[in-house]
Amino acid sequence: MxxxxxxxxxxxxxPGVLExxxxxxxxxxxxxxxDDGAAxxxxxxxxxxxxxFEAALEAHDSVGDLELVARADxxxxxxxxTVPGVREDLPYPLMVTHDVVVLEARGTPDGFEMRARFxxxxxxxxxxxxxxxxxxxxxxxxxxxxxxxxxxPDLSAGTGTxAGTGTxAxxxxxxxxGINATARATAAGLTEVQRRTLCTAAELGYFxxxxxxxxxxxxxxxxxxxxxxxxxxxxxxxxxxDNVLDG
Length: 247
Hints:
With 247 residues, the protein is an alpha+beta fold.
């Protein structure tokens, strides 16, 4: 049975860059590989000084090339190309090996905060152990089923690693927040794409008065068409009204 895990991994590039620009926010990088072992990541950035962010990336030993691809609603899309041979130092090849589907990824000075679907608990353990073999710190925050039912987050089986459990959450954090959010969305009849679209729209300020963003910007963030965003928002809001307000 598939499981959804929320965890933090520390990659060799992002934490060092964001230490120089801690206010910068990154989201949902798409990673591609060249035959020579170099990685190309397409990543959205916002909220900080872009000049300092670019300078920190260009100065990083693992970054071979940097290109600004697009600007939209105060955000910038970058293509970040690593130097060859870093494949074994990054967690992304492991995700392909173990059929991991990334649902959410946010860059922070501590690493990437991830929410991902694993085909099984054993796949999650194998991924965790693969990170340990590459000296990639891994800390599990929350583990739950597709329906939002909480599972035991302890993955102590296998080799010792930096895997955390719900009891080791950082002070002031709510380790069960992901469980509750997903369970509430499921109870409200929302699909995963509707939940993500609504959350992204809210985060970008779409529901504020005046609006803080546009459907075009939401579509660019999610990598879908504006029409798809419109449909998801309309259907998602209708389900919330039908199942929550009228329930």
